[in-house]
Amino acid sequence: MDAAKTSKTSKAEAGRQLPVAHPALKSPKIGVMLVNLGTPDGTDFGSMWRYLREFLSDPRVIELPRIAWYPILYGIVLNTRPTKSGANYRKIWNRERDESPLRTYTRAQSEKLAEALRDEPQIVVGWAMRYGNPSTKSVADRLVAQGCDRLLVLPLYPQYSATTTATANDKLFAALAKMRRQPAVRSVPAYYDDPVYVDAVARSIETHLVSLDFAPEVVIASYHGIPKPYSDKGDPYYWHCLETTRLVRERLGWGEEKLITTFQSRFGAQEWLQPYTDKTVERLAREGVKSIAIVNPGFSSDCIETLEEIAVEAREIFLHAGGANFAHIPCLNDSPGGMAVIEALVRRELSGWI
Ligand SMILES: C=CC1=C(C)c2cc3[nH]c(cc4nc(cc5[nH]c(cc1n2)c(C)c5CCC(=O)O)C(CCC(=O)O)=C4C)c(C)c3C=C
Ligand SMILES: [Fe+2]
Ligand SMILES: [Fe+2]
Question: Which molecular function term from Gene Ontology is one that the record holds (predicted)?
Answer without folding.
Answer: ferrochelatase activity
